[in-house]
Amino acid sequence: PPHFDGIQDIVFGNEHLYSGCRDATIKKWHFKTRKEKESQRKAHKDRIQSLAYVPTLSALASAGRDGTLKLWDEHKIGQTKPEVGKSLIGKCPVCSAQCSLLKVHC
Asked: Which of 27, 48, 59, 65 could be bridged to 20 by S-S, CB 3.0 to 4.6 A?
């Protein structure tokens, strides 16, 4: 199924396209087949502002309008990366370096 509101950001990583939407959903699409592989509804409490693929961690980072940053395991969208997820989930003023990396304007 499609997103139910406007797409805020898309990013390419490891043969997949990731989309983040105003409905707070992240979707993972297989680039060659153009089919949806996974999705995470309500990834944030408010809309997705920005996405970034982090190849060194095999992860997708998302920034929400709710002021949180999350790091997702690229193989299991919907599960935050346990080893680093806690350190990246927080209010934007606390982690301003990640905010600028993710194109978020606090």
From this structure: 48
